[in-house]
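Researcher: Please predict.
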Amino acid sequence: MGFIIKVPEPRGVPMQQSIRNLFFHVPMWFGMMILFGVSLIYAIKYLRNPQLKYDFYSLEYIRTGVVFGLLGITTGAIWANYQWGAFWSGDAKQNGAAIAMLIYLAYFVLRGSLNEDEKKARIGAVYNVFAFFMLFPTLWILPRLVESLHPGGEGSEGNPGLNPEDSSPIMKAVFWPAVIGWTLLGVWITTLRIRIQIEKEKRFANA
């Protein structure tokens, strides 16, 4: 006589095939944080040694980071529709992510309101430092202090997608290379944009 072992389902709605989004949604956010971190380094470099190339590098890394952030919100909303029944439910994590993106989008508005390149670079660098450190309360701290459907929130009722006890070795073997892959893709896109802009500057100078 054989034995039947019943494996309990994770808390919340079973993910089923929607778990595949784990390899897109979360690695995009990892990549976004890294890209914003690189941008912060160049902003600090500019404040210590005002060279416009540092400001230019900082700006381009923010551009790519924002794209990744918006894609992260989009894929998260699609996932939320399957798991929570709505694209946007006002969850603390969703609201925090939206606030973080608005802060970074305001960076471009601020730069666009200034005419002098040096003033634009200096004020932009200072704002960049502020924007980066605002990521921690909006994405990591505040959502953990309130009830949230999203994994990681206090009293979370969602699926603990990143809980080591619920992630299989096969999932981890795909997830972490996906994080590296998305990050390298973001760096590659940014370096391409930088090279294109440098070539444009050279042609403009030689014209």
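Model: The chain has one domain: 20-206.
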